[in-house]
Amino acid sequence: MLTAVTAAGCSLTALVAAFVSQNREDPMMATASALAIFGLAAEIALQTAPVKGPGSLRIGLLDQLYLLEESDVREGVKIHDGNLPTKA
To answer: What pLDDT shows up at residue 19?
Structure first.
């Protein structure tokens, strides 16, 4: 449903830029973290939206990005920091 939300991509790009600016040593992990947190906020926003439509998701997404606590992120985000699998 995020594809139906105006400015979701722009918001995500801004979040990625903010994360990378704070972790220049590992921009890949910063980007993965931003993507995961944005996705988590979107999931929570859609679950808690009074109406399951793009307008409610847009407002809910902004609210959830603001309201996310560290404990929410630790529970909801799974990023594996390791080597990527090699092709056989």
So the answer is: 96
